[in-house]
Design goal:
With 200 residues, the protein is mainly α. It contains eight helices and no strands.
């Protein structure tokens, strides 16, 4: 009977210590990061899904722009080849590779949209304008999702580095997680430039 009471008291003490040392906050932070990351991936996937139709539409009006179209298609393929699992968040090198692939795709899309400016018939095409509007909306959602992820990472990384919760992090193997680079953070703070005028 005394053994049961001691065991219960020990469990109660352990639970109190764990809750007071940041363990539960780290669990919550980790889950918030996973949720924010899932939304980032969801929006990146939405953008990737728009690309084939965008490329086909531009190709219909500007077949001579083969190099630009090929670069967009290849950049999309590189993005699709990266396994963006939650484990990627614990691997700074893999996260950097993911970031670089998304940056290359953004650059290729920007070049494609600049090329489109030279084709008034393309700019006035309803299908192209619909795709452009969807892409602009998706870029806005990517910005919001990335900013939420950056904030979740900031809160979590602060928790695992602060004393005394850093001791709990060390005991349970919680490490700071990678975030988007300063260069990319500056880039995403700008509004996306995806708008086109209609031909007059």
């Amino acid at each position: 009977m005394i053994r049961h009471r001691l065991a219960a008291a020990f469990l109660l003490l352990a639970a109190t210590l764990l809750s007071g040392c940041g363990y539960n906050a780290m669990q919550s932070g980790d889950e918030a990061i996973k949720a924010a990351w899932a939304e980032v991936l969801n929006q990146y996937q939405r953008r990737a899904d728009l690309i084939p139709n965008l490329v086909r539409t531009v190709e219909g009006f500007a077949q001579q722009e083969r190099e630009v179209l090929t670069r967009v298609t290849e950049a999309r393929a590189r993005v699709g080849a990266i396994q963006a699992t939650p484990e990627l968040l614990n691997d700074p090198a893999a996260f950097e590779q993911f970031q670089q692939a998304q940056g290359e795709l953004s650059g290729a899309l920007s070049r494609l949209l600049v090329v489109a400016e030279a084709y008034p018939d393309l700019k006035s095409d309803q299908n192209f304008r619909d795709l452009q509007a969807q892409l602009e909306g998706t870029e806005n959602r990517i910005t919001v999702a990335r900013n939420r992820y950056i904030e979740a990472i900031r809160a979590y990384n602060t928790l695992v580095r602060q004393f005394p919760t850093n001791l709990t992090a060390m005991i349970f193997g919680y490490q700071p997680k990678p975030t988007f680079s300063v260069q990319n953070e500056a880039e995403i703070s700008k509004p996306p430039e995806v708008s086109f005028g209609t031909s007059g």
